[in-house]
Write a structure and sequence with these properties.
9 helices; two-stranded antiparallel ribbon; about 290 residues; Arc Repressor Mutant, subunit A; D-Maltodextrin-Binding Protein, domain 2; elongated; single chain; alpha/beta
Length: about 290
């Protein structure tokens, strides 16, 4: 793949051979072997210079990405093996990226500048298995109600927060400091698709119904920021966890609810037998920030 990409980048085999310090025949053999493994030609050899076939156009950007990933993997692995750098992988939910994750990573990197921090978007429901297979070492999850989980996981509660009403900035109710759910009865509700990546998507409407408020669902958003865009367009209101209002849009307003039907909890999730000092340090930073 390296030889193939070098021919594309250099424009022809002659220049690629000079860059790689190998014979042209070696490049030709490697490309022929790659084509044999893939089951088709990567270059149209009837043209001069060669041009990529449809298969070649498909393979080239993906091969470049694989090479970049391989280089990063080798560099990171060598650093870890030599003890010159550490590594921590964190799975996070989308809503934690509005304030908690950036602030925590910034504080962590100030304390451990040599440690590589890997951030992976993973839902609350995906994180347990990701922890078990070692793909992540720490998860940031959101729960509704009581936090319950298997015994092999440890849950550190970071904070609880209420929901806020989100309205367009020019809405007649936008200037009120507080709102009752009953005041929203005539306004369409922007809900979320029944998506496990949004942990409260399956609970919002039942939660409001339990408080005696039955919203008129007019739109369903795939993720939180899309819901805010629909609100800004004047299509209705939505509810979001309070921390998601930080550093957010200016064309909508966030208003507390007088009679909030429920709270949501953000927790740090690790393996119960976890003894990594870097993970422990990151959790301590999270606790300090959320206090």
């Amino acid at each position: 793949m390296k030889y193939f990409c070098e021919v594309v980048d250099a424009g022809n085999i002659v220049q690629a051979a000079k860059r790689l310090f190998v014979a042209q025949s070696a490049i030709t053999m490697q490309i022929a072997q790659l084509e044999s493994e893939l089951g088709g030609e990567l270059f149209d050899r009837k043209t001069r210079p060669w041009v990529l076939t449809s298969l070649g156009k498909f393979v080239y950007p993906r091969a470049k990405e694989l090479i970049r990933q391989g280089t990063r993997l080798e560099e990171d692995a060598r650093g870890l093996a030599a003890g010159s750098q550490g590594w921590i992988s964190i799975g996070y939910i989308e809503s934690s990226m509005y304030s908690l994750v950036p602030n925590a990573v910034r504080a962590f990197r100030e304390r451990f500048p040599e440690v590589k921090v890997e951030l992976l978007l993973r839902s609350t429901y995906e994180q347990p298995e990701q922890l078990r297979i070692g793909r992540i070492q720490l998860g940031l999850s959101r729960f509704m109600g009581t936090i319950q989980g298997p015994e092999d996981l440890h849950f550190t509660s970071l904070f609880k927060e209420p929901y806020l009403v989100v309205l367009p900035r020019d809405h007649p109710l936008a200037g009120k400091p507080l709102l009752n759910l009953s005041e929203l009865m005539a306004i369409p509700f922007i809900s979320y698709l029944q998506d496990p990546n949004i942990p409260y998507s399956q609970h919002l409407v039942p939660m409001m119904a339990s408080a005696g408020f039955r919203p008129q669902v007019a739109q369903e958003a795939r993720e939180l920021y899309s819901a805010l865009g629909l609100v800004a367009a004047g299509l209705g209101f939505t509810l979001i966890p309070a921390s998601c209002s930080v550093n957010n849009r200016s064309d909508v307003v966030f208003i507390p609810i007088v009679d909030p039907p429920a709270e949501t909890s953000v927790v740090a999730v690790t393996m119960a037998d976890q003894d990594n000092p870097l993970v422990k340090a990151f959790v301590e930073i999270l606790l300090r920030l959320t206090r």
